[in-house]
Amino acid sequence: MFDVKKKAQEMNDRIIQWRRTLHATPEIGFNTPVTEKFIVDELEKIGVDEIRHGNGMRGIVALIKGGRPGKVLGIRADYDALNMTEDTGLPFAATNGNMHACGHDAHAAILLGTAKLLTECRDELQGTIKLLFQPSEEDGKGAPAMIEDGVFENPAMDGIIGLHTGNLWKGFMPGEAGYRFGALMAAADWFTVTFEGKGGHGATPHLTVDPVAMACQAVNLLQLVVSRETSPLDSAVVTVGTIQGGTMPNIIAPSCTISGTIRSLSPETRKNLETRLKGICTDVAEALRGKASVSFRYGPPPLINDRGMTEKMKAAMEDILGTEAVHEVEEPTMGGEDMAFFQEKVPGSFFFLPANYGDERDYPHHHPKFNLNESVFWIGPAVMAKYALTW
């Protein structure tokens, strides 16, 4: 029987080198030619059975065909970075104005490690593994693009797994791992509302229709949708992040625009928040003699882990790490993750691999000093390979 844990531990240095190479050349969105070439080259060296990329196809898909017939398991990793300047001081720090400040460099390296393990034991593998290397997660466009390009076809997937590393969830020590049944991460949607009125002199407000006043009323009322219309057992967030209107303190502007984000953990709450946003803004504008135009953009849906898949994930994690190092994630995060688009299509399980230090070296995600504890990277390939061999 292939010793997944031992092989993964022996491979950790190689995973670290993959991660450092990716870290030094971060790219954003779909503009990722250097990253994609590196991943494809490494997959060819590893010896997967088939690689698909380019020719208008977004992302990279690779197949590993097992020695016995069975179902098709997708394993996904994102690889895009953020447009921000790194301030870690690492010898492999990026210098191109972008930064891997969310762990996607590690995700891609870990999936390469998973591919290496599974090619070495493909005779024991039942079914087919479909590796998904995905760009453009940070703007939520990568997963829908890969779905549009046919990632669920030829062959169709029966389930999908993946992980997030870093320090998203508190209470974990290096060398541990976390799972959660049901909602793990929130839907992340975006809105822009423009209130229109009639501008004029600030000394004669009665001759105007004030859109700034409309925006202020709407912002206050939107908070009541969470505190008075949403169950306290079903978390939600409505954040107005920008408000733009007017040019001078003695001029009433003809228009005012607000924009923000809505986060939710259930499809029902998500739909209600959208409906109430549109209703409140429209009604407030009309009540104050103006009008409002509302633009709503869907981001990733809630990331909901399938119970059956997650039970098997928990078992694989405990087999690799022991029961004492595997814990349930107590609370979901209101951060979004476009892995959720894949898990809308097939049952899936997304787990947490903390790569923190547990001390002052830990910085939050999207921080210019964000870094990872590389000593635990082997856990990701070990768990995912174990899952693939036993699910």
TrEMBL record:
Binding locations of Mn(2+): 102, 104, 138, 164, 366
Keyword vocabulary terms for this entry: Hydrolase, Manganese, Metal-binding
Cofactor(s) the protein needs: Mn(2+)
Pfam families the record matches: M20_dimer, Peptidase_M20
Cofactor binding notes: The Mn(2+) ion enhances activity.
Keyword Manganese: yes
BP GO terms, sorted: diaminopimelate biosynthetic process
GO molecular function, one term: metal ion binding
Organism listed in the record: Aminivibrio pyruvatiphilus
Cross-referenced NCBIfam families: amidohydrolases
Top-level lineage group: Bacteria
Residue ranges constituting the Peptidase M20 dimerisation domain according to the UniProt record: 190-285
Name used for this protein in its record: Amidohydrolase
